[in-house]
Structures are given as C-alpha cells and as structure tokens.
Amino acid sequence: MSKKILLEHINVPGIQGYEAYRKVGGYASVEKALKMAPLDIVEEVKKSGLRGRGGAGFPTGMKWSFIDKKSGKPAHLVCNADESEPGTFKDRYLMEKLPHLLIEGMITGSIALEAHLSYIYIRGEYMWVYRILERAINEAYANGWLGKNIKGSGYDLDVHVTCGAGAYICGEETALIESLEGKRGNPRIKPPFPAVSGLWGNPTVVNNVESIAAIPYIVNNGGEEYAKIGVGKSTGTKLISASGHIKNPGVYEIELGLPVDEFMNSDEYLGGMYSDRPLKAVVPGGSSVPILPAELFYKNAKGEPRLMTYESLSDGGFASASMMGSGGFIVYDDTTCVVRNTWNFSRFYHHESCGQCSPCREGTGWMEKILWRIEHGYGNMEDIDLLWEIQRKIEGNTICPLGDAAAWPVAAAIRHFRDEFEFHVKYPEKIKDRNHFVAEPWEKVKHLVKKEEVLV
Ligand SMILES: Cc1cc2nc3c(=O)[nH]c(=O)nc-3n(C[C@H](O)[C@H](O)[C@H](O)COP(=O)(O)O)c2cc1C
Ligand code: SF4
Question: Please, which of 43, 175, 233, 396 could form a disulfide with 185 given CB 3.0 to 4.6 Å?
C-alpha cells in the first residue's frame, strides 16, 4: 500500500475543522518554520526533490530560490487552485477534505519566501470549496496562525482567498496574476518570470495546491525523508484523479514509482476496466497530454514496464509516450471514439483560448471545425493532413502553453489513431449514430481500414 502524506488523516472525523486538524499534529510545520532561517526551509524543499504538481513538474525548491530577496520589494506566495484541466479534480478533493493542510502549507511556504501577503486563487465554479477555505482561514486567524505576530514570533502574514470567474486560462500563472490584479486574464510574455516581476510587479511564486500541501511534511520530516519516497527524480507521492471506464474512479494518493499495471488493475486502486471491456487508450495527465494507445500504455517502446513517474510516462517522447501532467488519468475502453474525444477536447481549447495570439486563436477554431467535419461524416482525407499541419503550426508558436495543450492531443490522436480518422472519412454511414463505437466497437470494425504509420 502506498504511503500517505497528503491524505493520511482524510478519514479522521471533523478533520475539516481546526480542532481535529490540530489534534493530528496540524500546524507543527509552522511552529518549526518560525524557528528556522527562511533559506534553510528553501534548502529542505530543494533536498526533497518535490516537483510542481500543477502540470509542468518544475522543481519547487529551485523555483523558490529564484525569488530575489534583495530586491527590496515584498514577495508573495500565490496558490494556484484554478484546477480547470478536463479530467483533473484532485485539488478540489484536497481543499474540500483538508483545508487546513493547504493553509498550513501556505503559512510555512510564506515564511520560507519571507512573504507577508499571500493568496489562494480558486476557480469560480468551486464556490462551496471557497467557503470551506474561508472558514478554515478564519479559524487559523482566530487561533493565532495568521495575522500579526504569529504565535509571538514577530512574523506577520495575511492569506486571502480570491475567486476566479471560470476561465481555464486563469490557471496559467501569469494570467492568474493578471486576474488577481483585477484585469482580464491574459497571459504575460515571459521573461520576466513571476519570481522577478509577478503580482503587482513584486517577486512572486505561483504553486499548485498539491505542491503547497506537501510542504508541511517536508518541513516536519526533512527533505531527505521525503526524497526517500519515489523513484529517481520523481520523489514523494502524487494525487491522481482517475475517471473513465474503470471500476473505481476517484482521487488516489500514490507513491511515485508505482507500476502502471498495479495502479490500473489492483483493487486497491482502479480495479481494472469497467464491464471488463478491452482497454483502448489512456490520457494519463489531463486533457492536454498526448493520448496513449493500450499497446504503449503498460510497457514503453523498449518493452519495459511503465511506472507512474514523470520520466517513465514520458519515456520515448511523444512518438511512444505521454506525460504525467496534472495527474488527470482518463481511461477509455474500445467503445470510445477517439475522433469524438479529440473534437470534444478541441472545442474546450477553442472556447478557452484568450485570443491574444493568432496561431492559438485561429488554429484552435480551425481544428475544432475540421474535427467536427470528420466526426460527423463530412470530412475528407486531406482534412486529416490539414489537421496535422495546423497543430504543428500552433505548437511552440504562442505566448503561453495553452497553444501546445491544444495541439498535443490532436497530434497524438492522429499519430496513434489515424486509421480511425480514415474510417470516419471512408464509412460515413457507419458513424451516423453519435455512439457509433458503442453499437459496433472499434475492435470489430477496424479491419475495414489499414493502419498507416505517421512518422514524427
Ligand atoms: C492553460 C494553462 C492552465 C493551467 N492551469 C493550471 C491549474 O489549473 N492549476 C495549476 O496548478 N497549474 C496550472 N497551470 C500551470 C501554471 O501555469 C503553473 O505552472 C503552476 O501553477 C505552477 O505550480 P507548480 O510549480 O506547483 O506546479 C496551467 C498552465 C496553463 C498553460
Ligand atoms: S496561446 Fe492561446 S491562451 Fe495562450 S496567450 Fe496565446 S491566445 Fe492566449
């Protein structure tokens, strides 16, 4: 069984409230941090090897060390609780069940950065979670963990929760900062990075909810202890939100390094395929990461068993692998239409593009239209190549990574499932029903088209 660091106390009655949280050792990391030199806390986080859990996997300690403490400007810690990536719902679970864990991490992290004003930016759709956080923050103030002169240390800190208005792009850290400043959530051109010029032009660290929630354990137990969990550069535990055609959907805390096979098929985790149908594909890290066909899922291109680590899930590059991303694990059986799924994702990215750069603003719309055509039986073979060209021209040519996030799922779908796109073009009468592969699963009709390799 995986060690639990974040969700260890999730089943303690009343753990949402201050008293129960304090009884299981809550806020001990704040007491310890107040006695440490801020740079020593940063050092512990570096030693832990913790990588940002928001999607990019950037080392948290290193990010913290970029804050220029000599700039004379106040620093800020901003918690990214925007969580809008389709398939990802782990931060919601953590904040809903363990709000004080996040607040403890915010205080300890702020002490490390010498920040006296920090924010939690939460997506507008999580209004009930916003209220849970507000209540917990009020309890933290009432018990002397926030406000002036925390526990007689002379250290002052305020933490505010701010609600977004429901835009996916506000999860991108610079758009989030713009939104926090009261402006439209348009991503900024980087550099300068937030560590140099972030909120109100001050040095700012933006971290994901799960990254911040891991800080209390690291401070209490030391970075080296945290680094003992996991494999190689994938240290610690990771929350995975699992959905789709599996027996046990939900949020799981796993030790990084867990074999993919065990995660998928053991009763402790996903319990195997729902209705025992064949596995067709998996999107292991939220809608932005490449879809992985079943044959590349359990083993990498070298035939080695795949592990739940940043490295193993991306081993082989996009030609034969995917990414850990935000841990939004979506499983598809053979009744899933990959074209329809890709069209659905494309609709989302087109809708969420902020429109600042033309490859993303125009390209996401073109991809959505072409995918609609193919899915509804009006496509032709040139459309598939056109789609390929458009996604190529978006990737890497935009201000923020939303463009890449829109391009990668399309590229992977064509790369691995081109035969399915061709099937849609060649047999429009067979896809009239929107649930066409439910009526006639892909396994039964795929012999009608020849699988062509897309070499990239
Ligand atoms: C379009 C877009 C949406 C994003 N949404 C989120 C999000 O909802 N939550 C999050 O933590 N990071 C999100 N990110 C990543 C953030 O920009 C940033 O890398 C992250 O908050 C850093 O925290 P971490 O280092 O702890 O992972 C998003 C990035 C992009 C490009
Ligand atoms: S890539 Fe898209 S979302 Fe990002 S800045 Fe450009 S238009 Fe906006």
Answer: 175
